[in-house]
Amino acid sequence: MNPRRLFTILLISSFAALLAGCGSSSKGSSSSSSTAAAPANGSKAGTSSKAPASPAEVKAATAECKRIIASASKLTANAKTKLEGACSAAAKGDLTTVKKVAKEVCEEAISTSSLPPASKEKAAAACSKA
Fold first, then answer.
1. What is the pLDDT of residue 18?
2. Which of 55, 57, 73, 81 has its C-alpha lying 20 to 30 A from 26's C-alpha?
3. CA–CA distance, 67 with 65 (Å, rounded to integer)
4. How far apart are CA 42 and CA 81, in angstroms?
5. Averaged confidence pLDDT in the chain
6. Mutual angle of helices 77-91 and 3-20, in 10-degree steps
7. Residue 84 and residue 90: Cα distance in Å, rounded?
8. Which residues, in sequence order, are CB contacts of 90 under 8 Å at separation 6+?
9. Using CB atoms within 10 A of its CB, is residue 43 exposed (0-12), middle (13-18) or buried (19+)?
10. Using CA atoms, how far apart are residues 100 and 57, in angstroms rounded to an integer?
């Protein structure tokens, strides 16, 4: 297991928390900000010189990822299931599946949101870049 997998699991957790705020039925305007978790050693993802994550660290990060997703009350059951699978895929190093799931859940959250059409288009374009 390497630090990149651990970082990916933490990133999925952050993404799930961010999506939990999407899709509000409120018509009022509000703004929010979110910051993704950075690797503990301060390096950029994929460039870490830290020793590979131990199986126990990966297991703990995977459990935390799933816990965060389960507690996200605004995510649909389908989105939660997909994201929990992405946590497990990240733990195995399957980043292709993680990216695919992230894009699907992002698009689902946008399509069911109360955003105006122009904002939905911009947000959907951002999903494709993820």
1. 56
2. 81
3. 5
4. 31
5. 73
6. 170
7. 10
8. 5, 8, 9, 12, 62, 65, 98
9. middle
10. 24
This model's pTM is above 0.85: no
User: Which residue, 39, 59, 62, is CA-closest to 50?
Assistant: 39
Q: How far apart are CA 26 and CA 128, in angstroms?
A: 26
Question: What three-state secondary structure class fits 73?
Answer: coil
Q: Among 84, 113, 98, which Cα is nearest to 123's?
A: 113
Q: Which two tokens stand for residue 6?
A: 């651990």
Tokens matching residue 4: 């990149």
Better-predicted residue by pLDDT, 72 or 43: 72
Locate 46 and state its tokens: 């994929």
The H-or-E segment that residue 110 falls in is: helix 95-111
What confidence score (pLDDT) does residue 46 get? 46
Distance, in Å, from the CA atom of 111 to the CA atom of 104, rounded to the nearest integer, reads 11
User: Residues 89, 102, 58, CA angle at the centre, nearest 5°?
Assistant: 30
Helix (H, G, I), strand (E, B) or coil at 120: helix
Instruction: Give the pLDDT score at 30.
Output: 37
CB atoms within 10 A of CB 69: 25
Rounded CA-CA distance 110/124 in Å is: 7
